[in-house]
Amino acid sequence: MSNTTMVTCRGWWDLADSDLFYPEDLPHDWRLSYFANSFRAVLLPALLWTKTDPQTAAQWYDDVPPGFRFAAEQSLTPSQATQDSRHPLMPAELEQRLGAKLDAWIEPIVEPASTAISTITGSDANRCLRYQRHQTEQRGETDPDRSCPSCYGLIAPAELHRDLRRARDWLRKMAEQQGQAPSLIIMARPSSTDLSAWQELLDLLGLG
User: Fold this and answer.
1) What's the confidence (pLDDT) of residue 150?
2) Dihedral angle sign, alpha carbons of residues 162, 163, 168, 170
3) Where does the pLDDT of residue 75 fall: very low under 50, low under 70, confident under 90, or very high at 90 and above?
4) C-alpha to C-alpha distance for 104 and 134, rounded to whole angstroms
5) What pTM did the predictor assign?
6) 147-193, pLDDT tens digit by residue?
């Protein structure tokens, strides 16, 4: 998937219409699987995965289909995870549990202290976020297709969530400026309909 652009939100719960998207009787711990049936990737906020135990991370791997991918937000500081957890999950442990389904590490998305864990504002739309692909090894050899030092992610401007014509122009502009399309687009609390529409847009542009 190194030559594709993925679009997602910051956590499978971060849908503006989550109450409508998820069936009312769906168990909470089945929501990731349900999300993965409609979408292709999700961003794991640092404040989530650093507080997660290894067994839960391993369950995430089992809950999604083979083509689904996780992107993990790097923690701001090594001590971030220790504030509310005696045994924080370390990056190497997350990599081990998610394996090839962990597509990359993305640099921290710095938001005001009052902003909720699941929410981003989309106000920093032209800032390119470093997107460091997770190197996987098969038969003892590093996959060269995953080596991409210039990969980057973007936060989609909120005003473009439902304006696909302008979204297309924005994507082309950013790809031209950076010399390549982004690897990940993060939408701030989109509706499931908007997220699906962006996914279809990327397919139409040959990026999905």
Assistant:
1) 73
2) negative
3) confident
4) 5
5) 0.85
6) 555 799 999 999 999 999 999 999 999 999 999 999 999 999 999 99
Termini Cα distance of the chain: 9
> What is the spatial distance between Cα 158 and Cα 140, in angstroms, rounded to a whole number?
43
The CB-side HSE value for 32 (13 A sphere, CA atoms) comes to 20
Q: Which residues of 164-178 are buried (b: 16+ CB within 10 A; e: fewer)?
A: beebeebbeebbeee
The CA–CA distances, whole Å, from 9 to 13, 71, 132 equal 9, 10, 18
Report phi then psi at 55, rounded to 5: -65, -40
Q: What is the pLDDT of residues 110-150, one digit of tens each?
A: 654 434 444 444 445 567 899 998 766 543 434 444 555 57
Largest CA distance in the chain: 48
Q: Residues near 122 by Cβ (< 8 Å), separated by ≥ 6?
A: 155, 156, 157, 158, 187, 188
Asked whether residue 69 carries a pLDDT value surpassing 90, the answer given is yes
**152-155 vs 129-133, strand pairing mode:** antiparallel
Structure tokens at 184: 């990940």
Strands (E) in the chain, as ranges, are 6-9, 41-44, 69-73, 102-106, 129-133, 137-138, 141-142, 152-155, 184-187
